[in-house]
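Dig into this one:

. . .
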Amino acid sequence: MVEPILQCSAGLDVHKMSVVATVQCQGPNGELTEQTRSFTTFKRGRQELCRWLKDNAVELAVMESTGSYWKSIYASLEGRVRAAVVNAYHVRRVPGRKTDVTDSQWLASLARYGLLRASFIPPRDLRELRLISRQRTKLQGILAGEKNRLHKVLDDAGIRLGGVVSDINGISAQAIIDGLIQGQSLEQLAGYVQGRLRRKLPEVVESVDEPLGARHRFVLEQLRRHIRYLEQELGAMDEYLFAAMNPYQSQWELLQTLPGVDRIAAAHLIVELGVDMERFGAADALASWAGMCPGNNESAGKRHSGKTRKGNRALRRLLCEIANAARKTSSQFKGYYHALVIRRGHKRTIVALGHKLLRVIYAMLKHGVAYCDPQVDYDALQVHRNAPRWIRALKRYGYWPRPATRTATS
């Protein structure tokens, strides 16, 4: 018979407007008492919940990590009652009845027997900074959409500037678009062409030699105004994030030594991961939590689909962006990408490279050391690993040893 490891535990079934709480306590004689109450999610209701749990000497209160409703409940319990957020998938793996009351009773029972594993919850400061970082990501996506829309409106008007310049969001291209909106002449637009783009000056002038209608001009003007506003908002958020990195200055600067990581990416990493790697225990556990490693699916000695789990989607997206930048640098990550992309394709290789980067980040934060590239030659490692198989194939088809070439006689 399984013995409980806690004398008193609580299960919280959290909803938008209410919390159903069940407290299970085991007395000195082994008898089990159970109480169930419902509280509102307003400030007064959350305070009443905290007092009720403390009055019952609850050792652990658990709740599922569904939606975002648990966040205010967890914040109210933090520092007053030991609380844990658990994966709803783990709870559903154990069968139980499905009502609000029985959900809270089931959570309390699982917690009392130690059958639930608490999820990683960052400190309050980083939890609040996640609001800033994820809002910035949302605005960045909106900005990219508005830029693409501007490009489409130009094409609709017959202006093919995007087919001539390499970056329609560059300084010269944006100045030309502003001139088009203001109705400037071709000579004036040609004056905005700077740098290497001047070599394409005739093509640039020809691509914008199209009358711009009043309605196209109106839409373009609205888009340009919105793009400038979004860029200002992103700049303000960047300044706020950089100022918030003061308590984590050493770790922030440390992460910027990693190829592909700039100031904003390093700030996002700290917001999503924190700086205490002991919370994860090992790099393998961190990779699994982030959803950056193959999943485990084995039965009867056979391995089935190893699809990656969902994990932390914001961190996964960030690591893939960093991997795309790191593969273009003169580091081991460039060789790793080129050695793997032939067999696995671009997308899977980016995930694998993100997994490798995450393990490096774990080591850097845990030991407090800057990144030092080992200059690993992955091409040489690939040749060393596959050369015997290649030679056997060459011999099998008569290409090894290489046949002597015939010399032409005059």
Summary: The chain has three domains: 8-112, 125-244, 248-296+307-367. The two ends are 95 Å apart (CA to CA). The domain at 125-244 is CATH 1.10.287 (Helix Hairpins).
